[in-house]
Design brief:
With 273 residues, the protein is α+β, with helices and mostly antiparallel strands. The chain is 37% helix and 29% strand. It has a 5-stranded antiparallel beta sheet with strand order 2-3-1-4-5. A 5-stranded mixed beta barrel has the order 7-8-9-11-10. Helix 1 (18-41) packs across helix 3, helix 3 (88-102) packs across helix 4 (112-121) and helix 3 (88-102) packs across helix 5.
Length: 273
Amino acid sequence: MAYSMDVVIETPQHDVDMKAGLDTLQGSSDAVRCISESILTKQVPERLTHKSRVRTLLKQSFKGSYGHAFQLEILDGELQSIFNRIGQSVFSELIAFYLNEAMNVESRVLSPRAQKIVEGLGEISEALTNQLRKSSVKNIHEVPIKFNHDVKIRFRRNRDNQTVLALFNQETAKFFKAVEGKQKSELSAIITRLNIHTGNGRLQEEGADHTLPFSFSMGYKAISLKAKKVFSANLDFNNGLESQQWQYLRLVVRPINLLDGPVVKYIIEGYYE
């Protein structure tokens, strides 16, 4: 079963700086390979080589904004069977989830099948996200940073039907220049998403209309069972309720800020009972 994708650089001239363009294409290939291999083998690859059982192949280009079609190739019968069981639709959800997670961008709610796979990866999920941030997702941003052209990675069902999995632009690039603050402060918020294996999630501050990602300062393994249940219980309680009925947690946090000020993530240091 072929899994076809493309990378689109939205430049009106239909051409792009060669160095930045190649870096963006390389980052796109590496990110998709890294995510795919991690899902299929349940191991995050430290290096991607020509000997890998999961590769990407450049296909014929297309007219319009500068871009390239490519295809995920799985050179292992067992891994191909795993991919077939997952299916293209769920696999697309997972690629989109991890690409956006690497930029701390909130993605769409996963289907039950996709969510089960993420939970099954356990701590591999966190290692995969960190690996993507180190190089491949940074490289994808070469064109947005240097030339302010948006980049899209899309799943190609066919020539006329494509689904955008992730968008990369100057706004998403700002995350890689964020600075972790040292000053602690109190925050009243609800938990809107929580990975029970990694402790990563999203919260919504009281009075805000958007969510922000969070993680725990000491690592989720070191968090007491009692504390873990407090956070998961808050998520469960508020699920489906109107905002007037929400119950908030009082948190001790440190912010991660962009250079121009806005908070892009919180590090949770503790909470008040």
